[in-house]
Design brief:
The chain is of the alpha+beta class. The chain has two domains: 3-132, Trna Endonuclease, Chain: A, domain 1; 143-301, no CATH class. It contains eight helices and 15 strands. It has helices at residues 3-11, 18-31, 75-95, 114-132, 142-152, 164-172, 228-240, 294-301, and strands at 39-43, 53-58, 63-68, 102-107, 154-156, 160-161, 187-188, 198-199, 202-203, 210-214, 220-225, 245-253, 259-273, 278-285, 287-289. Strands 6, 7, 10, 11, 12, 13 and 14 form a seven-stranded mixed beta sheet that branches. Strands 1-2-3-4 form a four-stranded mixed beta sheet, with helices on one face. The longest helix is centred in the first third of the chain and has 21 residues, at 75-95. The chain is globular and about 70 Å long.
């Protein structure tokens, strides 16, 4: 996807709020930097199925812009907005190495004049341009991302790939256009569920045959089958095979809803949880060297 396609799709997606649309487009036009990456309606996945959306996120600067329309003006909503910013930053700091996100809030109500709103837009745009003046922005293409991964010789947590084929080619140093699952048994491409429906004391949104979810710390993945016979057989294997490892690429979606594979890490079987009736997979590595070799696999097993 080229810059024009990316920017136009970003600026036209996800909202029917007229004030928000005006403010976000105006800010982007005033900044006028073709290397600035924008993400509109940026979804942040939190516990308990709460997925707040950031109106405009600038990942290169760690700046989030929120357009506060009329309903944001009451005291209860203001308190909620502060709480929301805090939980988003806690999430970022818990699972990523990113810095604290700086939030800019722009108030717009029907009683405001165009001049008043434009003044707030100018203030936000000038703040962002001042931040940009201290760094060199670079629009990174997909090819550059892949080349960066190859040069450093490793895949790190949250590195993303478009398809399973791309994962295999990078992990094993192949040039495949198709693949057979039997040849790459270490790779695991699960859908990791959000925890929003109660089942056996655990909240899950997925109703698929296989259910996978994180524990509260993000260091364990639980796996179980909704087929009781299959799950019983799995329990026997889990109890007897504590050395099993998997390389996990979770199925996810990018900012436009397109499917991607996101690297989670290497997990080792750690037995069975009788309360959750699920196998325990403990994350032991969040970075792997590539291309993968038999010698390196044995080294991982001995960690």
């Amino acid at each position: 996807m080229n810059k024009l396609e990316y920017v136009t799709r970003s600026l036209s997606r996800g909202t029917n709020k007229k004030y928000e649309t005006y403010v976000i487009n105006a800010i982007y036009q005033k900044i006028n930097n073709p290397n600035l990456v924008i993400e509109t309606q940026k979804e942040i996945k939190l516990e308990n199925g709460y997925h707040p959306l950031i109106d405009l996120f600038l990942p290169q600067l760690n700046i989030a812009i929120e357009v506060d329309e009329g309903y944001h003006q009451n005291e209860h909503q203001k308190e909620h907005d502060i709480w929301r910013e805090n939980v988003i930053n806690q999430k970022i700091n818990q699972y990523c190495s990113a810095d604290h996100i700086h939030f800019i809030r722009i108030s717009v109500t029907s009683s405001d004049t165009l001049e008043e709103v434009n003044a707030r837009i100018d203030e936000a745009a000038n703040f962002i341009k001042d931040r940009i003046s201290n760094i060199r922005l670079h629009w990174v293409t997909d090819d550059e991302i892949r080349e960066k991964i190859r040069k450093r010789g490793s895949i790190r947590a949250n590195d993303c790939f478009a398809t399973n084929y791309d994962v295999i080619n990078e992990v094993y140093g192949k040039h495949l256009k198709g693949w057979r699952r039997a040849g790459y048994k270490l790779l695991w491409f699960p859908v990791i569920s959000d925890r929003v429906h109660e089942e056996n004391g655990v909240k899950l949104s997925s109703r698929a045959t296989w259910q996978n979810w994180y524990d509260g710390t993000g260091t364990i993945i639980y796996e179980r089958s909704t087929d009781k016979r299959v799950n019983s057989d799995k329990k026997k294997r889990a109890i007897n095979n504590f050395d099993d490892i998997r390389i996990v690429f979770a199925k996810d979606r990018d900012s436009f809803g397109k499917r991607i594979q996101r690297f989670v890490g290497v997990v080792r079987s750690d037995g069975w949880d009788d309360v959750r009736d699920a196998q325990i997979w403990r994350i032991i590595l969040k970075e792997i060297k590539i291309p993968l070799t038999e010698e390196y696999i044995e080294k991982i097993k001995n960690i």
